[in-house]
Amino acid sequence: MTDIQRLMRPPRFKREVGWAFLLALGVQTAGAFLWAGAVSERLADVEKRSDAVELLLERTARLEEQSTAMRASLDRIESKLDRQKTNRE
Predict the structure, then answer these.
(1) Distance CA 81, CA 58 (A)
(2) Total structural domains in the chain?
């Protein structure tokens, strides 16, 4: 076989190189799936926390409105009591 013929033929790999490549590819693929699963789990946890925060914000807004209404009611009661006090004197 001449040098030109040897250079023109496609390269051949030993079987050990092929198996090592497949094993490395398998390990990397498994690692990628594990990483993607962990990311998915963290994302689901963040979404749950976000939903809880939205619920708390809504409840806080309702409580704020109720306290404003109670303050207005208390002001009306105090003004009525003041008027009654001045009428008695």
Answers:
(1) 35
(2) 1
Question: For residues 85 and 81, what is the distance between their CA atoms, to the nearest angstrom?
Answer: 6
pLDDT in tens, 15-46: 666 778 888 999 999 999 999 999 999 999 99
* pLDDT tens digits along 38-52: 999 999 999 999 888
Residue 6 falls within a domain, yes or no? no
**Position 1 in a domain:** no
Tokens 């914000």 label which residue?
A: 57
Task: State how far the Cα of 71 lies from the Cα of 50, in Å rounded to an integer.
Answer: 31
CA distances from 19 to 5, 10, 22, 29 (A): 28, 19, 5, 15
Percent of the chain with pLDDT over 90: 56
Tell me which residue range forms the domain holding 73: 24-88
Residue 4 is assigned to a structural domain of this protein:
no
